[in-house]
Amino acid sequence: MKKRGLFLIFFLFLVATAQSQIIENYQSKLRIEREVGIFSKKERAIIGIDVINFPQSSFRFEIPSGSTAFLGDKLWFFTDKDTTFQIDLLELNRQFEFDGAAEIDLTILNEKLDPGEISVFKGLFEVGSGQLFESKTLGLDFSKREISDFNDFFTIALVIILFLFAVFKLVFPIVLGFIAKPQTVFTAEDFSETGSLQKFFSADVLFYLLLINLGIGLICMLVWKVSGNPNYADFVNKDINGLIFYWFLTSFFLVILSIVKFLSLKVMVSIFDLKKFEFAHFFYLLRIISISLFLVLGFSTYFFFNDQTYLPKVLQISITGFFWVYLFGVFYMYVIGVNRTIFKNYHLFAYICTAELIPFLILSKMVIG
């Protein structure tokens, strides 16, 4: 009787252990690759996992926080904290459709990877053996996943801007050289009698305003996309035709805003009796905006096509940097106005505060918070 009891206990122990059996530990197959660039360092862990043998088995994964996981060439999930989960092999095949492939690479991207924090097991695991290993797909359903057209839109928009820039340079080379030279920010040519452009409603100026505002509109679309703000979701989660339409609409609105800005400056100049100061004022700050736009668009394009994980930070720094550059431009314009013109200082100061500082600070408060 006692032997039967011992045999029964031993049999139950074997059954319990058989319910959770590891078939393969992939720790020995894990390899780390490092890619060092000028602006960033990338580390990736690559593990080849068997997706055809033991179809009734499951996988257990332990992934560190801040990781992006790819299965083959498809994005799987992103972890904002240390994550441990279990998924059946049949479910994995249903989601990814491996088309008979025997082994697929699991790639984990992270800025700092510790091989000890990553573990992958394949086995027959007991159902409900722990909350940490609850089977889940992390909310991704690849059969319903929508493909964003924003990357194609951004590329097409850049091509359009570069094409228009080439046309402008060919047709109006003198105007482009006058506006886009960085050194003219400090030489103050705008404030001489012959230095500033004296016509606003001309083909060259209006063409240039369209070109600049197309660039600003593209940056706006990119900021709305990267920020993930639901208030702008209707603008950036469209097909490519919708994205181009809203880009043109935003740019056209900015062109109208620029014209209104110039007309308001003209009214204020007449009020403060500053003669034709509106031309020097408008084109001097337009030059600062143009140079800043070229820099922001250049850096944003680089990170957009190379490493979008840094793009939100790049845009945040760019917007903050432009805030201070523009303020410096307004202050330097006042200094130039004091030294180069015959206007009374308090008239000039009151004019600049009314025309630039107060509206700009209000707008910056709305944008930056």
From TrEMBL:
The chain crosses the membrane at residues 153-179, 200-224, 244-263, 284-305, 317-336, 348-368. InterPro entries: DUF4271 (IPR025367). The lineage of its organism: Bacteria, Pseudomonadati, Bacteroidota, Cytophagia, Cytophagales. Keywords: Membrane, Transmembrane, Transmembrane helix. This is DUF4271 domain-containing protein. It comes from Shivajiella indica.
